[in-house]
């Protein structure tokens, strides 16, 4: 039996495949069909189409890493990549995906990348805190970086994010932190009034 998260992620993958491969007039109908399936129906559908969860060739995360499935990448190191979750629980919910299919998520490099991304998300999106939790699909373990703004948890409802929004979040996160400079200059400089010297100039006249 698929978990709710697995169901959600498989649907994501299917919707993506449909959007890329189906003729336009059949696309919406097919996507609607996929989205209306419950986890049991989805599992049967996968079996019928020989896309069972054990088929590692179809691993969604490996496809993201190879670039077969486009993603919103926000970071990378030797062992993993960081991408935005396209069905996020909260804004800028990200995933750290080990490059190796059976990679471990407690490796030094994975921790480094997740710490770096978590910090960026926390500062740039002003999250209250960041929660890290593992999940897996097709036996490919990933680490979720979930920003908490109110009281979201790993099982909170997911939202289908629009590409424009994801693109915008991606741009904010990959932008180098050059905002530090303007911050220093932020204090308002007092305008030197033009009148002042004129008044001062008048002063001597009044002295006698
Ligand atoms: Zn994989």
Write the layout of secondary structure elements.
Blueprint: H1 4-21, H2 24-36, H3 39-48, H4 60-66, E1 73-76, E2 80-84, E3 94-98, H5 108-124, E4 129-137, E5 140-148, H6 163-174, H7 180-184, H8 195-206
Antiparallel strand pairs: 1-2, 2-3, 3-5, 4-5
The structure holds zinc ion.
Zinc ion (ZN) binds next to helix 4.
Distance between the termini: 100 Å
Number of domains: 2
CATH architectural label of the largest domain: 2-Layer Sandwich
Bound ligands, named by name, code or SMILES: zinc ion
* Strand-residue proportion: 15-25%
**Number of DSSP helices?**
8
Give the biggest beta sheet.
5 strands, antiparallel
Strand order of the largest sheet: 1-2-3-5-4
**What is the C-alpha radius of gyration, as a whole number of Å?**
25 Å
Shape: globular
Tell me the structural class.
alpha+beta
The total of beta strands comes to 5
What proportion of the residues is helical, as a percent range? 40-55%
CATH superfamily of the largest domain: HIT-like
């Amino acid at each position: 039996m698929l978990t709710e998260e697995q169901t959600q992620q498989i649907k994501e993958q299917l919707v993506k495949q449909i959007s890329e491969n189906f003729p336009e007039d059949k696309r919406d109908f097919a996507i609607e069909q996929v989205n209306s399936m419950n986890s049991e129906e989805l599992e049967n559908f996968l079996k019928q189409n020989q896309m069972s969860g054990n088929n590692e060739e179809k691993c969604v995360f490996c496809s993201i890493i190879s670039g077969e499935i486009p993603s919103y990448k926000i970071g990378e190191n030797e062992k993993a990549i960081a991408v935005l979750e396209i069905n996020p629980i909260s804004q800028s919910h990200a995933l750290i995906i080990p490059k190796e299919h059976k990679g471990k998520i407690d490796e030094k490099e994975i921790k480094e990348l997740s710490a770096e991304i978590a910090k960026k998300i926390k500062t740039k999106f002003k999250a209250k805190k960041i929660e890290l939790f593992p999940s897996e699909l097709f036996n490919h373990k990933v680490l979720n970086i979930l920003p908490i703004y109110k009281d979201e948890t790993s099982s909170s409802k997911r939202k289908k994010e629009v590409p424009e929004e994801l693109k915008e979040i991606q741009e904010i996160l990959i932008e180098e932190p050059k905002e530090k400079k303007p911050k220093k200059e932020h204090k308002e400089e007092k305008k030197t009034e033009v009148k002042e010297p004129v008044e001062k100039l008048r002063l001597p006249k009044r002295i006698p």
